[in-house]
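Entry type: protein chain
Record version: 2
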Amino acid sequence: MTFVEDVLSGRASLDDVDAYRDKWDEVEGDGEEYHDFLGLLWPEYAMYVEDDVLGHVIEARRQAGQDLRTYLAARKDMSPTPAGLWSLGERYAELWRVFEVGRCTGTFRAGGWGAEV
C-alpha cells in the first residue's frame, strides 16, 4: 500500500508522510521510486517538493480517482488556493503532457525535474 492509499483508507494521516520517508529509507526503496512509494505521479511529486500539495492530492483521489492536474483545472477559478497551485502545476505542463500519453519516467536533474521520453 502507498502513503496515499493508506491516507484514503484511514490507516495514515497527512502528518505521517515523514514516517513513510523513514520507512522507504530503511529498505532503500527496494528498487521502488519514492514518488511511487508515496502513490504520487511524477508531476504531483515535483509539485510536492516545491509546495506541500499532499492534501490536495488526497482530495483529488477522493474525487473519482482524479490526478491533481484534473482536480485543480476544475477548481482553479473557484478560489485562490487552487488557482495558485494550478500556476505551480503549469510549470510542469510538459511533464504532465508526457505523463498523460503514458510515456513518462521522471528524473531529477541539476536544473530541476524533467521527463525522459
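Comment: The first strand starts at residue 105 and ends at 109.
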